[in-house]
Amino acid sequence: xxxxxxxxxxxxxxxxxxxxxxxxxxxxxxxxxxxxxxxxxxxxxxxxxxxxxxxxxxxxxxxxxxxxxxxxxxxxxxxxxxxxxxxxxxxxxxxxxxxxxxxxxxxxxxxxxxxxxxxxxxxxxxxxxxxxxxxxxxxxxxxxxxxxxxxxxxxxxxxxxxxxxxxxxxxxxxxxxxxxxxxxxxxxxxxxxxxxxxxxxxxxxxxxxxxxxxxxxxxxxxxxxxxxxxxxxxxxxxxxxxxxxxxxxxxxxxxxxxxxxxxxxxxxxxxxxxxxxxxxxxxxxxxxxxxxxxxxxxxxxxxxxxxxxxxxxxxxxxxxxxxxxxxxxxxxxxxxxxxxxxxxxxxxxxxxxxxxxxxxxxxxxxxxxxxxxxxxxxxxxxxxxxxxxxxxxxxxxxxxxxxxxxxxxxxxxxxxxxxxxxxxxxxxxxxxxxxxxxxxxxxxxxxxxxxxxxxxxxx
Length: 459
Known about the structure:
Structural class: alpha+beta
Helix content: 40-55%
Number of helices: 11
Largest sheet: 5 strands, mixed
Distance between the termini: 64 Å
Strand content: 15-25%
Shape: rod-shaped
Number of strands: 11
Radius of gyration: 52 Å
Order of helices and strands: HHEEHEEHHHHEHEEHEEHHEE
């Protein structure tokens, strides 16, 4: 049975059912061919020759012309009827009918399939002649013959064997075609449970199995992606702990040194004591800042954290943000270029968090660029979004750093010196923008400057 790959199991089951019916019909045909192929030779009766299957020649027009001995030799008999009842019988009566009506005499020939029947009127007497037809005689001879019975049984057994073998072949082919993809799938699942990677099921089978294959391969891809993300998260966590330790160790070491010097009375001059206390204060502020940044980062990374979104005028929000950082920009001798529309443009934002996100960008621009750098802050109104642009013409960022600029503890100069930053600023910025269902992109070139595009939904 050559079934086309890619068919549905439903259609295959229908085809198998049709094949089963065909096999059953073929079995019947085979049985009857075996039955009649040699049955005449086994019975060996001269009266069962094919030309004798018409026995009408025994019936004559007149009762007196009948060959009664011939009728009796053909297992026939003659019934004498009087007042509708059988009063006498010549030969051996083989049916149980003892009464006749007029309708019976008319319909007897068409209704009785086993016997050829004729009625004769002879004077005041009525005779009914009955002779078994060819099929009836054949069946009687077969059942009366021991060899015939054995041959029928053997024919039936042979037919059953042939039909069973054909059914078995169809079943084996069907089971093999169904079990093959299942076996492949089972092997891949076992490999998966043993920790193998880069798994993939590759076969072309029925539609249902192909869908299972696609689902399995998709699941494997998702699991591998999740495993990769898990490993990256673990690496990131380790790096975070290492960098936090590094950033906290330096100020803590300084605090321990200065405080011990004061406790041991190494420092006696009051001015020196004030200097040491100022060092301790500044280093403590540094630790507090790092812990605060880490707390904010962890809070934003929490699955249950949600923003306090409100409808706000983004243009007015940006003006207030610029005013907040204007003194820092002026004190560091930076130039400021503002391009904000006069109209009101609205979006759903958390003002506190978005202020933190954009403030980190402005702070970084001031921190990592030289005096005289120009910072441009603008807003572009798009069809469905608003685009906040924060740009400078400073030193720029190298391409290898841009690729991971939004990762934790990455600084534009790739140094690990204490520069006042936590290395979490832009990572926090990106998380806040993502929580606003927005997008942030960075464009930079060393010696030319850096540009951040922040897109938020407009309402």
